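Example with several molecule types.
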Amino acid sequence: MGKAMSMNLLRHGFKVTVWNRTLSKFVFLLCTALLSQYLEWNLEICVCDELVKHGASIGETPAAVVQKCKYTIAMLSDPAAALSVVFDKDGVLEQICNGKGYIDMSTVDADSSSKICEAITSRGGRFLEAPVSGSKKPAEDGQLVILAAGDKSLFDEILPAFDVLGKKSFFLGEVGNGAKMKLVVNMTMGSMMNAFSEGLTLAGRSGLNPQTLLDVLDLGAIANPMFKMKGPTMLQNNYSPAFPLKHQQKDMRLALALGDENAISMPVAAAANEAFKKARSMGLGDLDFSAVFETLKADGHSS
Amino acid sequence: MGKAMSMNLLRHGFKVTVWNRTLSKFVFLLCTALLSQYLEWNLEICVCDELVKHGASIGETPAAVVQKCKYTIAMLSDPAAALSVVFDKDGVLEQICNGKGYIDMSTVDADSSSKICEAITSRGGRFLEAPVSGSKKPAEDGQLVILAAGDKSLFDEILPAFDVLGKKSFFLGEVGNGAKMKLVVNMTMGSMMNAFSEGLTLAGRSGLNPQTLLDVLDLGAIANPMFKMKGPTMLQNNYSPAFPLKHQQKDMRLALALGDENAISMPVAAAANEAFKKARSMGLGDLDFSAVFETLKADGHSS
Amino acid sequence: MGKAMSMNLLRHGFKVTVWNRTLSKFVFLLCTALLSQYLEWNLEICVCDELVKHGASIGETPAAVVQKCKYTIAMLSDPAAALSVVFDKDGVLEQICNGKGYIDMSTVDADSSSKICEAITSRGGRFLEAPVSGSKKPAEDGQLVILAAGDKSLFDEILPAFDVLGKKSFFLGEVGNGAKMKLVVNMTMGSMMNAFSEGLTLAGRSGLNPQTLLDVLDLGAIANPMFKMKGPTMLQNNYSPAFPLKHQQKDMRLALALGDENAISMPVAAAANEAFKKARSMGLGDLDFSAVFETLKADGHSS
Amino acid sequence: MGKAMSMNLLRHGFKVTVWNRTLSKFVFLLCTALLSQYLEWNLEICVCDELVKHGASIGETPAAVVQKCKYTIAMLSDPAAALSVVFDKDGVLEQICNGKGYIDMSTVDADSSSKICEAITSRGGRFLEAPVSGSKKPAEDGQLVILAAGDKSLFDEILPAFDVLGKKSFFLGEVGNGAKMKLVVNMTMGSMMNAFSEGLTLAGRSGLNPQTLLDVLDLGAIANPMFKMKGPTMLQNNYSPAFPLKHQQKDMRLALALGDENAISMPVAAAANEAFKKARSMGLGDLDFSAVFETLKADGHSS
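Resulting structure tokens for the full complex:
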């Protein structure tokens, strides 16, 4: 995703410096504003000649990029990577200082986000968490939805870049709220995917054409892009991963934990979460989250 | 809904005769085709001067309407009413015969539908079940989705009327399939409403603005008309019934029973069904089905 | 079970006449009181020389047995059989009359029970439904628990026989209550079996010895005969049916339906019911209900 | 519980030194073996004249007790307390050394237990985790079930004390297994309590006498001490806490998390967990865990 985001920034005239953590697992995106309303962006993706060809320059380490840039954006695969890039040797902390902003667009739990925020701000930097809703395709199209929280002034300054990366940016208040909002959205999505899978299963096993169900759903009050996009591939047992099932299940687990903290009973999300766990026990964790559909198939002669 | 549907037919030049069963509980809509591709429609709604003003004529009894019309459409509130209008004195059966078609657009279980079908066809009539997806507003706008099953030739002939009443009509095969498809759609919708309610609750009680959640959802992969329409009213605790909760719960119960017949385990729908039952136990059965949101509110000081 | 019950009555000096409906599927047990406090019982089990050897005589048809006996007890496999024996040709109704009592100990739904009750009483007979808690072993040992409802005077008269068949008899009021009580008990049992299966699974997959879990459970506050009896066989994947899973699932379905009528949300029973349905979809319906344990096993490489 | 356990040890001739952490929140129990097969025990409960009267002596700090004793037993209210007593100033670590054993009988998560184990053993001490099954009454009666894991030689030496405190002691292997076994048992118990609550609710609202259900259950295959003990108080809405609901829910959460690690789907436990969360949201967290019964009551006029 980092690559797609960098390309969008380059295309819109931002100056970009890039750095990439490992071969392909992590994408680290660093940027800086050079002029009043223009931004210089820095971004590297491993063996990323393509980006360099389009005008990106390269930073040797996260620290090097932060030194060079006013604004640094991170897009990493998980909380461990997000923490490592900040706290490890040659990491962000070594160069962050007054006047610089750090924007973490990775999907990170609230605790890790708070830890990073504290470290950045204690050195005078400004921090914004800004996880996104949307995966590869929306990233390429600059159609992400950005859920930002933290330093409001930094949000306002970085908005021109957000406008290139996404179709809409929200400022949600204190650090942690971006992560929470993302969890709420993904929990709702995970329950819906189960509702959808159950509907498709019931249709098929009751003698209806599941393809017709897709057509009917698409005309009604619950028509939505996910049903439209995933329905046809699910009917073909095609689960090439846009959003891996184990990540979906992790988000449901974290959302349920957030509910637990606040004494919120969410029986439907809990049932959906168990279905995703069932899918994991069937070895489907690395497939697309729509593979939860497989948990509903009959594996014997019913009686 | 019968009234809105009759108005649409009248507006499009159909001749309509109407009859209405009781004061306002039931709406019975009867129609007939006079000419090759034109239809004469008959429809009465209690004290329905408005329809008459627009050109409808009146039938004294269901039997009278069937006698007068080639095609008769019923839109009744529940299976009991659907059966009564056919089998009771002065009912449809007294006049149905070779050359006449009977289309029941009520939402009726597969058993009742089969019983009606058998009675109609044993007297030489043709039968089509045609429940609709969509409630009051789509009915007024001629934007219903029609789920027809039964006599294919009758379906083909009545299509011009369906095209006025709805935006899309499906022919689903044997009688019972219309009812089943509707159950599958409504089950999926009921689970989604719970997923949505849980998301709104989690947002609100975790310190996020639920209104912002609505905005975020509306931009993402699970954006759908139901979230857009119901979200704002739910946040105002406004549950004036478009689709009563007790009917939604009934449909979930029937869908689960259909699954049971076919040995289909649907844990998310089952959890959603229990939430709707909880809402009924709270006295919310006559409110809109979105009132299931109320089951998630804290009723004490959490600990 | 009918055979075991007949043997117990014969052993205690009751006179018994027997009739059996089909090869081995149904057991029909008929009895009559000859003397003041002694009862004459009649019972047949197909090719049941053993019972005859122990003193039973044989009735040619249900009607024949009723004619001969003051008290007739039925123990049949399901509601359809229970209805057939009463209403079919040569059935109970042909001879039931004033002065005779009919006791149905089959497990029958409340509706069928009411129908039988009405037919019996409209001919002057007295009726008692008396389903039992306990299966083969308790039947042999005269350790059933009898859940009677209907005619109190008949209950009082038949008590000496109940005392031989069971360890305790309850009179629960109006007809239907026996069936309901049985459903409540079986629903609770079905949820418990799932709780137990989940515990065994969690132990085994978390590196604990499931056999030790059985030992620990047996010493604690939730120790119970079912865990003690089923635990060891479940760990051996031995599910020879004492109580078939499909019957357990049917009882959960009916219990949930009873709850639905009364707007009772029972989320744990609903989840347990879906697990039993999952087991049915895996082809385990004819095995013991403890086979629901199989639904929890990993069928792939977890991730 | 610590007090009851100390009394039992004193009664059986053990020498006991006691220390208590805070006014009454924590009970810390320390013991040491003086002679070959006799043990010297040390235990303090705040203002615990009663124990002193029965022969206990007093340790000023945890460190002081460890110094004095060969075997030290801790019984604390939660993981935080268990950690504090070991790691804080004047804590166990200051005096633990080769030749001494530390037995933590608190209910502690596997992580905290491992942390304590590592600290103790790195200083030459031996460690045993030994959470118990059973609450106040079994503690007084010496009828606890002890779930020990860790150092097998320490287990063997401390067994004479365990035999006084409990009716049965299990050695479960590596540290962490005691905590896991306890979670499995409590998860099973929590689901059963929900199954029981649903049964009682269904009985009462369907026109059966819930007290009769208790009698019927007590005679059948699922009869168990918990139903017998809790049933009557639940019917009186009496939930004075033997095991607080919030602790039961915490154990279900941890058990589900353990299942999540191992990709185990446990839908019934998940539904039960949500019911306990609902109870917390109703402000019932400090009552007995049987208060989950309250979540099932109708709070409106059902429809």
